[in-house]
């Protein structure tokens, strides 16, 4: 497959409600899209980076810069596929969200050319996936209970509460008491605690949580292993796992029993699938996370969530949890599930009118 040019397009997508985590508040999703053009097909992908380097060290302007200066120029001339694109970017360190969006757009173009869906290419074994929802930090417990009640009524099969010091045991207790023991409930701290908080975090053991996601810093694999020994609730890592090598280290150290796989965070779907396979071989549970994606990023994640090792519901929520008008035909929850796209590549396209309306800038790089 020959690439004739690549477009970098920035869009601004207002969120239906601001999303508050321990690292900040997001009101508008500042998204970088990549479109890979070939004679036979166009491939689309969405970068997970956010405006500011808070969730991780990457940010949208930085991702666009490294793509423009280094990653796109490094692609081999002549025939390219996703594997070759990934290999060509390997000499550059870090910048996995940027590498992922380019590799994924190449993969989309490649699979649209051959007519295969992402789900089939990954080896998915489901045609619909159960969905959870990630619930931001609220101003008060009553407000949180209203929000969670709305999501439960919509059919979400699992609730994830964002927590931070000062917003943890009480909101978790309130949600567990109000919605009962049957609710699948988990929490995500986005690295807001230290090992000195171990005894406090152990209080969460009372609430039968499915897992505690990323309580400690991204580079605290050893500390997570120490914390895991002091808790009954399984630990899940998100920010700490940037590669299959990280996953192998975490598993060997006993830092986690669960991994939230965000294909963008680990540099793309090919590496994500290696982590899935490795974890599965070691009896470690995985599930597909999210980064407040539009329909373009969501489509690929929903396909990944359909892999056999993804045995917990993902943060793959319906379009209306994020946006009043999604960039694609909306993903709609049906009995707590989303259908896995079946068309070639990611199986969905941006809606031209919406795309134009939300576009902030575009940059064309001819090859
Ligand atoms: O930590 O999982 C996270 C969103 C942005 C950045 C980090 C995280 C999240 C979420 C929401 O929890 C996941 C989603 O609904 O896309
Ligand atoms: Mg997380």
Automatic annotation (TrEMBL):
A biological process term (GO) from this entry: menaquinone biosynthetic process
Alphabetical list of Gene3D superfamilies matching this protein: Enolase-like C-terminal domain, Enolase-like, N-terminal domain
EC number(s) reported in the record: 4.2.1.113
Cofactor(s) recorded in Swiss-Prot or TrEMBL: a divalent metal cation
Keyword Iron-sulfur: no
Origin: domain of life: Bacteria
GO molecular function terms attached to this record: metal ion binding; O-succinylbenzoate synthase activity
Sequence ranges assigned to domain Mandelate racemase/muconate lactonizing enzyme C-terminal in this UniProt record: 142-234
Keyword Transmembrane helix: no
Keywords associated with the record: Lyase, Magnesium, Metal-binding
Matches recorded under PANTHER family: O-SUCCINYLBENZOATE SYNTHASE (PTHR48073:SF5), O-SUCCINYLBENZOATE SYNTHASE-RELATED (PTHR48073)
Protein name: o-succinylbenzoate synthase
Phylogenetic lineage: Bacteria, Bacillati, Actinomycetota, Actinomycetes, Kitasatosporales
């Amino acid at each position: 497959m020959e690439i004739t040019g690549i477009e970098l397009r920035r869009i601004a997508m207002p969120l239906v409600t601001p999303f508050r985590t321990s690292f900040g508040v997001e009101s508008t999703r500042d998204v970088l899209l990549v479109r890979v053009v070939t004679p036979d097909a166009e491939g689309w992908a969405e970068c997970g980076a956010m405006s500011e380097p808070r969730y991780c060290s990457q940010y949208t302007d930085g991702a666009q810069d490294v793509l423009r200066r280094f990653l796109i120029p490094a692609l081999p001339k002549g025939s390219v596929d996703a594997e070759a694109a990934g290999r060509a970017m390997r000499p550059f360190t870090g910048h996995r969200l940027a590498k992922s969006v380019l590799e994924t757009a190449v993969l989309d173009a490649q699979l649209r050319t051959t007519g295969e869906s992402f789900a089939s290419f990954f080896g998915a074994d489901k045609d619909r996936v159960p969905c959870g929802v990630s619930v931001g930090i609220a101003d008060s417990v009553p407000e949180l209970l209203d929000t969670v009640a709305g999501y439960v009524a919509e059919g979400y099969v699992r609730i994830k509460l964002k927590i931070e010091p000062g917003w943890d045991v009480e909101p978790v207790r309130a949600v567990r008491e109000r919605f009962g023991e049957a609710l699948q409930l988990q929490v995500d701290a986005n690295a807001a605690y230290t090992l000195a908080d171990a005894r406090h975090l152990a209080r969460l053991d009372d609430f039968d949580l499915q897992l505690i996601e990323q309580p400690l810093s991204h580079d605290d694999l050893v500390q997570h292993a120490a914390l895991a020994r002091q808790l009954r609730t399984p630990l899940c890592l998100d920010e700490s796992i940037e590669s299959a090598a990280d996953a192998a280290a975490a598993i060997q150290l006993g830092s986690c029993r669960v991994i939230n796989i965000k294909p963008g965070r680990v540099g793309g779907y090919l590496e994500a699938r290696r982590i899935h396979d490795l974890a599965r071989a070691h009896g470690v549970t995985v599930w597909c996370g999210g980064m407040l994606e539009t329909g373009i990023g969501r489509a690929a994640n929903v396909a990944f969530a359909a892999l056999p090792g993804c045995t917990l519901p993902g943060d793959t929520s319906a379009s209306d949890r994020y946006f009043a008008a999604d960039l694609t035909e909306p993903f709609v929850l049906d009995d707590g599930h989303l259908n896995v796209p079946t068309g070639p590549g990611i199986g969905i396209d941006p809606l031209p009118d919406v795309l134009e309306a939300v576009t902030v800038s575009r940059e064309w790089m001819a090859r």
